[in-house]
Amino acid sequence: MVDKKTKEWSGCPVRFGMSQFGDKWSFLIIRDLMFKGRKYYNEFLESGEGISTNILASRLADLEENGLVTKRQDTIKRSKYVYALTEKGIALMPMMLAMIDWAEKYDDKTEVPSDFIEELRHQPEALRQKLLKSLKSD
Q1: Low-confidence ranges of the chain (pLDDT < 70)
Q2: The HTH hxlR-type domain covers which part of the protein (predicted)?
């Protein structure tokens, strides 16, 4: 299926990536799923970033359509849906970790827990494995 975002794709991997998750809201949803344990619609709304309900619904649908996120009905509360990263979404972890490291170095306002950044810089594989384990246990 060729969608409007990749219809005239030039073969550039950066352009393809941006067509899959190329706006701040999508990255923040991925961040919340990957690092903050959020998995319900209301948890994304309450993340403090100020995303509106229509933008959140649209970005979640886009991420699901692009195969980065799954949506399933909650087994306990049937009126709720649970969102999770797919393998394709989890594969973004090295890029997300690199962004965190880069921002922590170059942005004075970036706040990363010191133990997290320490582990990222000195034991990156152990951190990655710990994060993968938590994502796959959900």
Answers
A1: 1-9, 138
A2: 12-111
For residues 138 and 96, membership in a common domain is answered with: yes
The token duo for 101 is 């490291």
DSSP β-ladder status, 81-85 and 69-73:
antiparallel
* Cα–Cα dist 121/49, whole Å: 27
Number of domains present in the structure of the chain: 2
Q: What is the CA radius of gyration of the chain?
A: 16
Same domain, 110 and 136: yes
Residue 1 within any structural domain of the chain: no
For residue 48, count other CB atoms closer than 10 A to its CB: 7
Q: Does residue 61 sit in the same domain as residue 112?
A: no
Asked if 45 and 61 touch (Cβ cutoff 8 Å), the reply is: no
